[in-house]
Design brief:
By secondary structure, this protein is of the alpha/beta class. It has two domains: 7-235, Phosphoenolpyruvate-binding domains (TIM Barrel, Alpha-Beta Barrel); 239-285, no CATH class. Helix content is 46%, strand content 15%. A hairpin with a 2-residue loop joins β9 (260-262) and β10 (265-267). α2 (51-64) runs parallel beside α3 (82-93), α9 packs parallel to α10 and α11 (239-254) crosses α12 (269-285).
Length: 287
């Protein structure tokens, strides 16, 4: 992940909270949750017969409502559907671009590339956050994530499991998560894991979030404000991690940038780059 500078461009993101388009009356609770990104959802959380009304409500809210959050993004409907096209038309009518667009139901990069060009053409340039939730999207993941304007991505494990006919437990989806992380390697994107759906299972949330961090995810999505604190805590460097990172950088610098042993391991540039990212994140969250 790129070193953090401004959370408004998806750097330093730990959590993304979905807010149903039909529940914008609960916006203050969403803002108070502490989520780094608030995602207004026009897709799965809105019944088919309420899409038009929800779109109108979102337009009014984005155009005239009060948002005190640094990063608000919008999950639209599939861009090759009539609903998605109507969502994009609404976005073009806004007086200013939204903070980002979460793009669902992708299968290949071409659709995203065309959307990127359209946004630039209509002066609606904004960051794109593809939702990798189909088998074909996972197969074409590297090309999708390499598209212009993509700054982050979400692993849509729930829909993927439904398509594959498997369950969504960690061990079942671990191979697919690994493929997702591998496809994003070196692209410096915010990598957001799927939500935890057990709203009353705090221990399960903590375990899965810790596993996501170990796998290389940089953030996790949430479907309820009460999940955010636990997610943020897991992805915030601990005092021990910060202390160790600072010492690694110091020891490496004192060695003149040469590989050097430290506490039974070898410090080399890749290790030091990761340590510097830990220090940058810790500094950001202390602001």
């Amino acid at each position: 992940m790129a070193e953090p500078n401004n959370i408004a461009n998806l750097t330093a993101v730990r959590s993304l909270l979905f807010v149903p388009a039909g529940k914008l009356d609960k916006w203050e609770k969403a803002e108070a949750s502490g989520a780094d990104v608030l995602c207004i959802d026009l897709e799965d959380s809105v019944p088919q017969n309420e899409k038009t009304e929800a779109r109108s409500l979102v337009f009014t809210f984005l155009e005239h409502g009060t948002q005190n959050h640094p990063l608000v993004v919008l999950r639209i409907n599939s861009v090759d559907s009539e609903l998605g096209k109507s969502d994009l038309e609404m976005i073009r009518e806004l007086s200013k671009p939204v903070g980002g667009l979460v793009i669902p139901k992708l299968t290949e990069a071409g659709l995203l590339e065309r959307l990127s060009k359209q946004l630039i053409m209509f002066d609606r340039k904004t960051q794109l956050i593809p939702l990798i939730e189909t088998a074909l999207a996972l197969e074409n993941c590297r090309a999708i994530l390499s598209t212009n304007l993509v700054t982050g991505t979400i692993f849509g494990g729930y829909d993927l499991a439904m398509e594959l006919g498997c369950t969504k437990e960690w061990d079942v989806l671990s191979a697919y998560r690994s493929g997702f992380i591998r496809s994003a390697g070196g692209l410096n994107l915010s990598l957001i894991d799927m939500p935890w759906f057990g709203l009353d299972d705090e221990a399960g949330l903590q375990t899965e979030t810790a596993n996501a961090k170990r796998f290389g995810f940089t953030a996790k999505a949430a479907i309820h404000p009460k999940q955010v604190t636990s997610i943020n805590s897991t992805f915030t460097p601990t005092p021990k991690e910060v202390e160790d990172a600072a010492e690694m950088v110091r020891v490496f610098d004192e060695a003149g940038g040469h590989a050097v042993a430290w506490r039974g391991t070898v410090l080399e540039p890749p290790v030091i780059n990761q340590a510097k990212r830990v220090l940058a994140l810790a500094k950001y969250y202390q602001q």
